[in-house]
Design brief:
heterodimer, A: mainly alpha, two-stranded antiparallel sheet, B: alpha/beta, Rossmann fold, 2 domains, 6-stranded mixed sheet
Chain lengths: ~325, ~500
């Protein structure tokens, strides 16, 4: 069933390993375990957010507001910690998750009930949510010296060699595989995006699936809000500004179709890692930040071209297999 | 007779201002096959969608096993034991065959999808349909006919008390249709109620016990099939005795205009050769999905063939884009009028002048008034019922929309006119007008290619009939030698 997608994932995986090998020939330290673990920690936020985005893309939507949700949930988490530094991490995790879920639900309700295109909805809420960061903080920054040690240390704690943040990414990948492969809900997300009108005939509520996707994506973005603010030790209005584009890029490189209904968790993880390696390797080579942006952009465009070729339909299959002429067009 | 399982009464449904159903009445009995017959637009599909929860009725009652029920969604209909093979393709191209079959009731273990069980059960259902399709491949890899079979398998995938089949044989060969009938008889013996919708009367008389006739959104009559015959059903359907539905006018047939030689395009069609002459109407008949539209799209430059040649008046054409075809005097009316043929929100005038806009450009500016005059003349000639030339096309009836599309292409002054299902979804009255136009166009010396799935249409209108099956040219008949039997046999592989 997944032959094409399997081979695509395998191809992308091989390409990623090749990239890793090339960089490490020039810089052997690049593949030292500590650097690799560090790079994974660096990419964990991208993996988490890309999975949320994937859910929305599967249902033929797009979420541009996730980075703004990160900023808002992160600010609220930081303010909560500032007000109650003794309360510990649990309430912070809970509140950032809750804020994210609510913001995601708001997106989802607009898409589901008002049948608005998700790009327009999230373009709007992206500004609204980011504006609310300013409202919540009064424009002030919350710096690491205003955060409690527990708040800062939680995601950095080393468990079995890797950080808690890395474990969150791994855990989410496991949950994602189960959800999308083995839970009827996950399969219905694919069906709703693959052919919405057929899904309606099959008794799948396409709008509800979009709502579910946005809500889950929001929850992930909310959690990432706390992770982000804690990891970089600062909360302010422009946190994660523009990061939604990298998130979408990771999905597209990973083979998630912008037309909905196609994509694998493995692909998204490799897509995110691929971007992560490029981001970490380019400065090593000594490329200027502007060239780095251009190279990242080229890689993303290349991925879109490859995807488009893979998705082009050759026409309806009418002739029987055996009758394919030897001289068929190349 | 036993009580009906399903009983619909007084069902109405409107879309915008258009009444699709004004009096939906239908009874389905256990262990009986009820054939639902009616013209296009009689309300059959709307009724099916209401029964399967895709649409909700505006008024009226649905009784299931004697109790009044509301069917709020497709999911609810399935839980009530109503399953359907829909006319529209209910297909997920990027999911596996097995998941397509079990899309609404995937086998589970402890709440998790049991893929092994799903594949096993899918293979078992496909085996009862005498098919060896691998349940684990992606749907995209199947042919049109195989996809159809998977949809039938889907309808059989759960224990349904009521099975609805909307045009189930439209894409099936004779042999496959016989297998389907065997399944229908088995479902019948198991005490299920079956609603069988078909345009093919020969199928109905083979498989059905009862009939229900719909016309213009209303139930006309229900009864036992044994008490009626072909002619009576047709007259109930159209509301009058049928004569001269297709007034073919004699036309003088001249020299060859278009010739196609060994045209192939994998995986759509192979080795297609034919020619059309001045004044000739060439009918192209076949089942749904036989590859007829694909051939026409390749001739028109919508797609590019892998090999083969197309000649116009003896000169080879190299058509790479539709624009090239239009410039050479080839016009193509697509089957999907709403999707490909018209710009619904634009006015009648704007639609008609679309392919010839450059004629009204002087010194770089478009003279809209001049275009409107030409369009008006064209529309009047074709007797389009309109309030003005500025009326949006979406406000017109299906038949009048089709006239606008024809007017649009006639304005390009074509030499070859390709019509793909020209009367699909058009009421009987307008159908005859469309047919008369086609006849007149042939009389005026156009070479006409008419793709159609309607047997009476092709027999009544065409000077010559090509029959396509599974992407290949199967047979060719002159008007005089064509009988319903031999044409159908060529199309369905009897």
């Amino acid at each position: 069933m997944h032959f094409f997608k399997f081979s695509r994932d395998a191809g992308l995986g091989a390409l990623t390993l090749l990239l890793l090998a090339l960089v490490s020939i020039a810089f052997p330290a690049f593949i030292s375990p500590s650097n690799l673990f560090g790079m994974f920690d660096d990419t964990a936020l991208l993996i988490l957010l890309a999975f949320g985005e994937m859910l929305v893309l599967l249902t033929r939507g797009v979420d541009l507001s996730n980075s703004a949700v990160v900023a808002l949930a992160g600010m609220i988490a930081a303010l909560l910690n500032q007000a109650m530094p003794e309360a510990g991490v649990l309430p912070v995790l809970a509140i950032s998750l809750l804020v994210g879920l609510l913001l995601g639900m708001f997106n989802g309700i607009l898409v589901w009930q008002l049948r608005l295109p998700s790009m327009v909805v999230t373009l709007g809420t992206m500004s609204v949510y980011r504006g609310l960061v300013f409202v919540a903080s009064g424009g002030a920054w919350v710096n690491s010296n205003q955060m409690s040690p527990a708040f800062l240390d939680f995601i950095r704690a080393n468990v079995l060699g890797i950080t808690v943040l890395s474990w969150f990414a791994i855990g989410l990948v496991a949950v994602a595989v189960i959800l999308l492969r083995y839970r009827p809900l996950g399969r219905n997300l694919y069906a709703a995006g693959n052919n919405p009108s057929a899904a309606a005939y099959a008794g799948i509520d396409v709008g509800r699936m979009q709502f579910v996707a946005f809500t889950l994506a929001g929850g992930i973005s909310g959690l990432c809000g706390y992770f982000w603010v804690s990891r970089f030790g600062v909360a302010y209005t422009d946190v994660a500004l523009g990061f939604e584009m990298q998130v979408i890029a990771a999905c597209v490189i990973g083979g998630v179709s912008m037309a909905g209904g196609v994509g694998t968790v493995t692909g998204v993880v490799i897509g995110a890692l691929f971007l992560g390696i490029i981001k970490n390797a380019l400065p090593l080579i000594g490329l200027s930040p502007f060239w780095q942006m251009a190279v990242s952009g080229l890689v993303i465009t290349g991925a879109v071209v490859v995807n488009a070729r893979g998705e082009r339909s050759p026409g309806r299959r009418i002739l029987e297999q055996s009758s394919k002429p030897e001289t068929a067009a190349v | 007779m036993a009580e009906p399982i399903v009983s619909l009464s007084g069902i109405t449904k409107s879309f915008g201002g258009v009444k699709a159903l004004v009096k939906g009445e239908l009874d389905l009995y256990p262990g009986q096959v009820t054939a639902l017959v009616g013209e296009n637009g009689a309300g059959k599909s709307t009724l099916v969608k209401i029964l399967t929860g895709v649409y909700q009725a505006d008024s009226g009652t649905i009784r299931l096993g004697g109790e009044v029920v509301q069917i709020g969604s497709a999911d609810e209909a399935q839980q009530m034991g109503i399953s359907a093979i829909h006319q529209e393709a209910v297909i997920f191209d990027d999911l596996s065959v097995a998941e397509n079959i079990f899309i609404s009731n995937r086998p589970r273990r402890h709440g998790f999808v049991d893929w092994a069980e799903m594949r096993r059960r899918a293979a078992a259902i496909l085996a009862t349909l005498n098919s060896d399709i691998d349940p684990s491949i992606r749907m995209r890899q199947l042919s049109v006919a195989q996809k159809h079979l998977v949809q039938i398998a889907h309808a059989l995938s759960y224990e349904a008390r009521v099975v609805i089949m909307d045009e189930p044989t439209a894409a099936l060969s004779y042999r496959e249709a016989q297998e389907l009938f065997a399944i229908v008889r088995r479902l019948k013996a198991e005490g299920r109620a079956i609603l069988f919708i078909s345009h093919k009367f020969e199928d109905i008389f083979v498989v059905a016990d009862r009939y229900a006739v719909f016309r213009d959104g209303a139930a006309i009559e229900q009864g036992q099939l044994a008490d009626t015959d072909n002619d009576k059903l047709i007259s109930l359907m159209v509301g009058r005795t049928v004569s001269q539905v297709f007034p073919k006018l004699p036309a003088e047939i001249g020299g060859e205009v278009l010739r196609v030689e060994s045209l192939s395009r994998w995986p759509e069609f192979a080795d297609i050769s034919f020619s059309v002459r001045r004044g000739e109407i060439l009918g192209v008949y076949g089942l749904v999905g036989a590859g007829r539209s694909e051939v026409m799209q390749a001739i028109f430059g919508h797609t590019i063939p892998d090999s083969g040649h197309v000649f116009l008046n003896g000169q080879e054409l190299h058509v790479r884009r539709p624009e090239d075809a239009i410039n050479h005097g080839i016009a193509y009316l697509p089957e999907d009028r709403q999707g490909q043929g018209t710009l619904l929100r634009l006015s009648i005038g704007q639609n008609i002048t679309l392919p010839i806009l450059s004629r009204f450009v002087h010194h770089g500016f478009l003279h809209a008034g001049e275009g409107a005059r030409v369009a008006e003349e064209m529309a009047r000639h074709l007797q389009v019922k309109m309030s003005s030339i500025d009326q949006p096309v979406q406000e017109l009836s299906g038949g009048n929309q089709q006239k606008v599309v024809i007017a649009k292409w006639l304005a390009t002054d074509p030499r070859v006119l390709i019509l793909d299902e020209p009367t699909k979804g058009i009421d009987v009255g307008t159908k005859a007008t469309v047919h008369r136009f086609i006849s007149e166009l042939a009389q005026r010396g156009l070479a006409v290619i008419m793709v159609t799935s309607e047997l009476p249409e092709v027999l009544g209108m065409a000077d010559r009939i090509l029959v396509m099956r599974r992407g290949r040219l199967q047979a060719s008949f002159d008007r005089a030698e064509a009988t319903p039997e031999i044409v159908v046999r060529a199309a369905t592989d009897a």
